[in-house]
Amino acid sequence: MVVFGAIARKVPAFIESATAGYIAAGLGAVASAALTISFVTPVLAFAQTPATVLCSCVLGWLYLQWGQFYVRLNTRTAVGCLFVANIAGSLLKCLAHFSPFALACAITMALPIASVLLCRMALLDVPRPSRAAVRFESHNLRGLWKVAAAVAVLSFVTAFLVGRSFGNQSSAPTDAFLLGRVCEVLISAVVLGVVIGAKKSFNFAQLWRIVLVLLALDVLCQALFPQVKLIRCVESSAWDLLVLFTWLTVADIARHAQANPALVFGVSWAFYTAPFAVGSVVASALAAADVDIATTTVLMFALALVGTFCLELRDQDTKWIFAELSGERASAPQDHRSIDERCKSIAARRGLTPRELEVMQMLCKGRTKSYIAETLYLTENTVRSHTKHIYTKLDVHSKQELMDLVGA
């Protein structure tokens, strides 16, 4: 997806043209059939690796194509589309899981074709809107490291737990598999009822804490009740929500980013897939060992770090995500650009250094000294020193006077 996103930034037709869609659909159908048949036909076992690679490429391309659609939607509509589709997907999983091999193979082959056709129909129904307000520019995009860290840690823990239990949802016992699908449908219905039905507000931290609580519950259950395998349905539900919330978060960032949306999708998705792959590999390597107290402690510690540092309700870096549904006014980046321009003009007249200008711009946006230090990789003492120099050169005595001078 990173490579495809870079290509799409230069050549939009790579994911937008009808020809590209038909090629992807055909390759996906052939690769899916080859992969499915190779698992039950020993003589074709050699085809598993190339078929897997081709399926992965087609899947990445399909993700980028659907990314075009979700970038055009507002956040509330995106939530509705995602979770309605998730309910349909849960039912489709059951159909494929309990179908005879021939029917399951046919369903698998049909999925990439259906995905391409449905996406093209969806794009026709949703016209390309005017450019959304830019909230994530090059200078503040790095502030989203907490988002990336939260996704990466939760992805690793989810993959580790799923890998330790069954290795794959389809390998789970029938009762656990069905209960997992029921949980997916119920959680999706609750989200739809809250966000679409009741039109409640939510923010990034509130959304992701649902996954955090599910994973913490699963780790606790594994430690206290390792013999109760039915509890493992929590893992598949957490995995399901992890994918949905990651997609929803990336779509909102791509919608309001200065960078090309396809590239944002491609790069951002790596923060989910790479840790998930690592977690799966680690789980396989430790498959023979029991989940001991040390492993449980490490997992709980990782989840605690995410909850403490990455999912703060008042976090400056993440409050712009889902700003339309957060219930509070997010500072408009257009205002920030105006502030930046006025700061540059004043700094040029008063002889501020480039670093002092950066600190001045952040102070005028209401940032704290600790936030500025963390963002610019400075110590708080250094930020205080820069602030004193700024006050002296501009002949002001407080942050409020500085903001009044700039008109912030």
Q: Point out poorly predicted stretches.
A: 330-334
Question: What shape does the CA trace take?
Answer: globular
- The total of helices stands at 18
SS strand fraction: under 5%
In N-to-C order, the SSE pattern is: HHHHHHHHHHHHHHHHHH
Q: Average the pLDDT over all residues and give the rounded result.
A: 85
Question: Roughly how many Å is the radius of gyration?
Answer: 24 Å
* Biggest sheet layout: none
Number of strands: 0
How far do the termini sit from each other?
Answer: 40 Å
- Percent helix, as a range, is over 70%
- Please state the structural category: mainly alpha
Features:
408 residues; 74% helix; mainly alpha
Question: Your description of this structure?
Answer:
It contains 18 helices and no strands. It is globular. With 408 residues, the protein is mainly alpha-helical. The longest helix is centred in the first third of the chain and has 25 residues, at 101-125. The two termini are 40 Å apart. Helix 8 (145-165) runs parallel beside helix 10 (204-224), helix 8 (145-165) packs antiparallel against helix 11 (233-255) and helix 9 (174-197) packs parallel to helix 11.
